[in-house]
């Protein structure tokens, strides 16, 4: 019997995580800057090949969109969107917040997703209409933040150059977009904002947040899904805002002012 795609995504993330953890412990952090001014390391390429091989072995003929290789969305019903190493700078600098993000899209819409943080031993999974899970246990977002002493707002480091944000929440920037979204799904963060993520940074996290009961959208009129065949997603970024509820997302968005860049 064929393995379910969410199980396949989770297993592939765990396998890649084990390989990346070995490289991390070896201090394998050499890399170079890409044209979009993000870092890529040998570990990124190693994990990317491993994940693509695993997916093609189980699901031959299905499309793959990858940060480090195939960046043009294919004209296939089933497409896998992978970020082999989310948080590359953290990985290269010996910080713990990095992981693997894998999403399975059907006709351009997220259907299954998995995000794995090896050093934290945290695995987040979701299937459309089936809920979200943290290490196998169901996730259910608690909307209320009034009783929390320090509700958290997590965001990327680029936010300060692109937005002025008025918020009473405590700010944290952990350097991994997929993990920021998962922290909303886990009730650790109330809101997450990513200023310039690519589709592979958030495809799995997008589904995990929604299936946990949260709200997520792109700021502005253009939304990322359904993904469009033929589009080069290396050239496309979407500012993403996630929150524990639609009401909180709307309230928080009202305090965001774009800066001239």
How would you characterize the overall build of this protein?
The structure is a single chain. With 261 residues, the chain is an alpha+beta fold. A hairpin with a 4-residue loop joins strand 6 (109-117) and strand 7 (122-127). The mean pLDDT is 92. It has helices at residues 5-26, 42-58, 88-92, 159-162, 177-185, 199-211, 246-253, and strands at 31-33, 39-41, 63-66, 78-86, 99-106, 109-117, 122-127, 131-134, 137-139, 152-155, 163-165, 170-172, 191-194, 215-218, 240-243, 256-258. It has two domains: 5-139, Fructose-1,6-Bisphosphatase, Chain A, domain 1 (2-Layer Sandwich); 152-258, 3-Layer(aba) Sandwich (D-Maltodextrin-Binding Protein, domain 2). It has seven helices and 16 strands. The strands form four sheets. The protein has a seven-stranded mixed beta sheet with strand order 3-4-5-6-7-8-9. Strands 12-10-13-15-14 form a five-stranded mixed beta sheet, with helices on both faces. Strands 1-2 form a two-stranded antiparallel ribbon. 30% of the residues lie in helices and 28% in strands. The chain starts with a helix and ends with a strand. The radius of gyration is 17 Å and the shape is globular.
